[in-house]
Amino acid sequence: xxxxxxxxxxxxxEGLGHVLAGDGFDVVAAVGTAAQLEREVARHGPDLAITDxxxxxxxxxxxxxxxxxxxxxxxAVGVVVLSQYVQRRYASELLGQDRGGFGYLLKQRIADxxxxxxxxxxxxxxxxxxxxxxxxxxxxxxxxGDQVVAGLTPRQVEVLTLMAEGxxxxxxxxxxxxxxxxxxxxxxxxxxxxxxxxxxxxxRRVLAVIRYLEAAA
Length: 217
What we know:
The chain is of the alpha/beta class. It is built from 11 helices and 6 strands. Helices cover 57% and strands 14% of the residues. The longest helix has 15 residues, at 180-194.
C-alpha cells in the first residue's frame, strides 16, 4: 500500500514513516506542508494520504483543506487527517463529500500501532475511521437532542458507537465479546429505531449512522 505523509514536525513525520514502513506500507513521500502534500499525491497517485490538520503557514486547517481537495481531485485516494484535539467540525467537513475513504483520528492513536494501521487500511479500502473520542462527542450530543438515540439500550449504544467508528460486525463482536449473529441483531434493531434502511455494504452503513448522529447532534 502506497502512502504519502504530511506532517510539519520532523520527528513525528519520520516516526510515522518508520511505523508505517515497519507494518508493510510503502511511504512514497513524506513532506512538511499541505501544498507539498497535494503535489506529491498528484505525482505518485498513492492509495492513502495522511496529514496533520494544522500545517504551515497559518497552522489552522491547511491540512484539512488539502485533504478535501485531494478527495475531490483524486477520488480513489483515501485520506486520513490527524489532530491533537477533538473538533467535530473536521469530521463534518469530511462527511460532507458523501462517500467513504476518509478518517479523522487523534495523534495519540498512533501509539496503538495495530489498531492505527488497521484503521488506515480500512480507509484505503473505501471505509471510514473516526476516532473514538470524536464518536463519543457525537453520540453524547445526539442522546441529549434526539429522543430515539436517548431511548437506545446501553448495549445498543455500545454497538452504535463502534459502528460509527467504522468497525465491522466481526470487530464489534470481538470488542464486546458477542457473537456476530448477536451484533447483526443489535444493528438491525438500531436501524429500525433510527428509521434507517438496512444496507449490506459496511461502508454505506457506517456513513448512514454517522450522518444520523451528525444531524441529531
